[in-house]
Amino acid sequence: METLNNLVPTTTGTEIAQELGFGFIAKNAALNGAMNLGVKALQIVFTLFLCWLMIRLSHKLINKVLEAQVQRKKLAMSERKASTLSTVAGSILKYVVYFIGLVSILKQLGVPTESLLVIASAGSVAIGLGAQGIAGDMMEGFFILFEDHYAVGDVVTIQGITGTVESVTLRSTKLRDAMGAVHIIPNGSIGTVTNNCREFINAVVEVGIAYGESIDRAIEVLNDEMAKTTDIEDILETPTVAGVSSLGDSAVNLKIVAKCKVKTAAGVSAELRRRIKNRFDAEGIEIPFPQQVVHLVKEA
Q1: pLDDT band for position 124 (50/70/90)?
Q2: CATH of the domain at 175
């Protein structure tokens, strides 16, 4: 009997209580850890939502301020410049809010402030060494905005690309050409800019007449036709017949220059060509097609 008692393990009440206590503590610790993780996750989500809300509200505030500036009677700002400043200010503000939100999230995750300062210092050094091109782009973007080289909505030519400016930031300029393609050009590599939207633009039309026609009569007819263009709203002044521009292979080319509103040169040119063709047909003035004269030489 004593031998059987020695073989059966015995557990005291104290040991059972300790095991139950340790199990409860472990479960409680796991529960607290899960709750803390959930709270941090909610804090991070709330921080991201707050950043998004701040960006939306700030964009609306910036637009209202700029709209009020445009509508002012004194020292008013043009709509094109207001649109550009709205894009740039919104971009800068977005990055500032993102940076503040990132720092806040890292602090919520338990990253010490000293570590954040070290990370920021290392990041600034990395930017200084490896992102000199970006710094140059931003500096050039600042001068583009400060000196008002162009603005959103302008038709410009940059690096041989002609298109409408869709956005301007400190980093780059976005153009959309006539085919609908979008070109993103870093501000640091822009170089020479041709702006076709300053006060007015000239619509230049060249028309050819046959060598057998009278140049003086053709110019007289053109001057009379150009005097009738007052019904075209986009033309600012009566178009000028500049005279003979070149002597082509099969035609004498005459040039007409029309001062018109910005962004209307293509439409004005098309309308002038239509009127000139109809008038020349009515006057019997020939617009020749390309032709060649072949001389045959007989051998003796």
Answers
A1: low
A2: 2.30.30.60
